[in-house]
């Protein structure tokens, strides 16, 4: 997988764009994401049903993975079963 790849969830409507990625399976709602839109959308696992927000970037603790949500959904993002967190905005410099 390379940066710029669009991935679609098999568990909800979530779609993401890969910004940075390493080795591991990107999942949404507990199910693996793929480049092709699935024929039938399932339901997210209860452990991964926190939802995604459009325009937010999601990262892992090590900073290896970074995903940009381009279409929100009910499932939450994870890599190999480890949940991703919303990336915090950088603080603006003081203008004193």
Structure class: mainly beta
- Give the number of DSSP strands: 9
The backbone outline, from C-alpha atoms, is: globular
Distance between the termini: 44 Å
Low-confidence stretches: none
Helix count, DSSP H or I runs of 4 or more residues = 0
SSE order, one letter for each helix or strand: EEEEEEEEE
Helix residue percentage: under 10%
Offer a few descriptive terms.
mainly beta, 4-stranded antiparallel β-sheet, globular
Task: Give a description of the structure.
This protein is an all-beta fold and 96 residues long. 0% of the residues lie in helices and 31% in strands. The chain has strands at residues 6-8, 15-20, 26-28, 31-32, 57-59, 66-71, 77-79, 82-83, 85-86. The chain has a five-stranded antiparallel sheet, with no helix packed on it. A hairpin with a 2-residue loop joins β3 (26-28) and β4 (31-32). It is globular and about 55 Å long. The model has no long low-confidence stretch (mean pLDDT 90).
């Amino acid at each position: 997988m390379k940066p710029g790849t669009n991935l679609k969830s098999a568990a909800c409507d979530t779609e993401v764009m890969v910004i940075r990625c390493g080795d591991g399976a990107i999942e949404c709602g507990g199910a693996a994401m793929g480049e092709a839109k699935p024929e039938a959308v399932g339901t997210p696992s209860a452990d991964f049903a926190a939802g995604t927000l459009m325009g937010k970037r999601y990262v892992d603790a090590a900073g290896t993975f970074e995903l940009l949500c381009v279409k929100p959904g009910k499932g939450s993002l994870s890599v190999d079963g480890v949940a991703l967190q919303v990336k915090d905005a950088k603080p603006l410099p003081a203008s004193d």
